[in-house]
Amino acid sequence: MIRVGLVGCGWWAAHAHVPAIEAHPDAALVAASDPDPARLAAMTAGAPGARSFSTVEEMLAVSDLDVLVVASPAAFHAGAARAGLLSEVSVLVEKPFTLHAAEAHGLVRLARARRLGLSVSLPYQYTAAAREIRALLTEGRLGDLVGVHAVFESYTAPLYSGDVDEYLRRVNRPHAVAPLPGTYADVAIAGGGHGQSQTSHVVSAIMDATGARPERIAGESVFVSPGMDTANAISLRLSGTAVATVFSSGGALPGLAAQQSVTYLGTAGSARHDLARATLDWATADGAGGHVEPGDGESAYPNGAPVSTLIDAVAQVRAGHSDAPLMELTAGAERAARAVEVIESLYSEDAVRD
Ligand SMILES: NC(=O)c1ccc[n+]([C@@H]2O[C@H](COP(=O)([O-])OP(=O)(O)OC[C@H]3O[C@@H](n4cnc5c(N)ncnc54)[C@H](O)[C@@H]3O)[C@@H](O)[C@H]2O)c1
């Protein structure tokens, strides 16, 4: 049995991670931590085998965990993930991975040195479409990548002013547990607004698909209060041959379907990844092409896949098999750390002052 511990007993843990842990035949939630006693009690009441702790350090000291899921607000991700890795536990970290790229890269180095799994909860990357664009680009089937352009619209703006009820009502999300307003609206713990919460998804998707490093980054944001942004426009030079642009806004309103797509243009072909629908359409100059979409029963946003994939990889090692799947997840975390470089630059002193 893979023993899982949870850091942060909030909305997303209850909605995405805990159901996936409970549904996994080889895993059990054995411990949970949260500084808020009511939230902690509500979570462990629904998971009778789980012990309660007010801090991650206390939990790690006595729980003999195999996997740690970090679903606390963004500012606490790096510290909890580091504590887990230092206790020889593989870690899934919610997005945004960390607030600072140096923290993210440090965690990747630590995980590699100890041959542990480190993964970032980015469900858009767990679809057949995401796997196909990664394969097309890795195998060079679109030729040399020249340009990437992305648009990522969502209905998240109310979150950045702390109006959680309005957000949940608007997106019609079921919620036994609602997010605490500060998780998204308090700069001190959210690290920023839309860039941290949403633009991190689309930039991570580009870094994951291309495997590139961001060599030059320029960004402009709309700030509604100091450090709290609702829209971003980013221009990147990627390692290799490509340039990229990303426009991302939390101000989309219901009525016109939000666009969430990334287009990849190469010297021999092009591809469009629709993140919202989890589809990929691609074509090459020599007449090849394809369309990928979720299969029957597959979600376009498989939010339980990050934790179940990490559990599977840890279980493989436990059974005496190769740790290659575990280390592949850690390689994915390195690509996610490059996205943190991009997002961090949006909140640089200059950008905030402007
Ligand atoms: N991948 C996704 O699609 C997705 C979706 C929603 C949220 N998230 C991420 O999940 C994380 C949590 O978001 P949420 O919506 O569940 O928020 P939430 O406010 O519902 O939950 C956060 C919980 O963490 C607790 N907490 C605060 N400080 C802590 C600490 N130091 N250690 C442990 N717990 C602490 C809070 O008491 C709260 O119960 C955020 O990083 C958010 O960006 C990801």
TrEMBL record:
Molecular functions (GO terms) = nucleotide binding
Question: Which residues, if any, are the signal sequence?
Answer: none
**Gene3D superfamilies referenced in this protein's UniProt entry, alphabetically:** Dihydrodipicolinate Reductase, domain 2, NAD(P)-binding Rossmann-like Domain
Give the Gfo/Idh/MocA-like oxidoreductase N-terminal domain ranges. Answer: 2-120
Q: Which Pfam families match?
A: GFO_IDH_MocA
Task: Identify the InterPro entries for this entry.
Answer: Gfo/Idh/MocA-like_OxRdtase_N, Gfo/Idh/MocA_Oxidoreductases, NAD(P)-bd_dom_sf
- Origin: domain of life: Bacteria
Identify this protein by name.
Predicted dehydrogenase
List the source organism: Herbiconiux ginsengi
